[in-house]
């Protein structure tokens, strides 16, 4: 028998929440929480780096976007897939 992985979505239930999440010291320009993570977009990579350092654990920095993992059930493989997907967005040709 093959091991079966439970289906999951990298971006389940996204909602725009810039007003709620961008503030309190985080000057992000866009914010979208999902069931798995918050995606915080900043105007510059320096601002994103600073925010990622201040948030600390359970974050991933991809260019000017900080991913703050909020689902404690995410596996390392799932976190890596989310990070790879975001990195692919920044590295794709327009």
Automatic annotation (TrEMBL):
Protein name: Uncharacterized protein
Top-level taxonomic group: Bacteria
Organism: Lipingzhangella halophila
């Amino acid at each position: 028998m093959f091991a079966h992985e439970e289906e999951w979505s990298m971006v389940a239930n996204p909602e725009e929440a810039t007003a709620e999440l961008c503030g309190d010291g985080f000057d992000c320009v866009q914010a979208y929480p999902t069931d798995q993570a918050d995606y915080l977009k900043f105007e510059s990579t320096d601002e994103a780096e600073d925010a990622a350092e201040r948030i600390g654990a359970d974050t991933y920095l991809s260019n000017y976007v900080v991913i703050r993992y909020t689902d404690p059930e995410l596996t390392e493989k799932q976190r890596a897939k989310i990070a790879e997907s975001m990195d692919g967005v920044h590295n794709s040709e327009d």
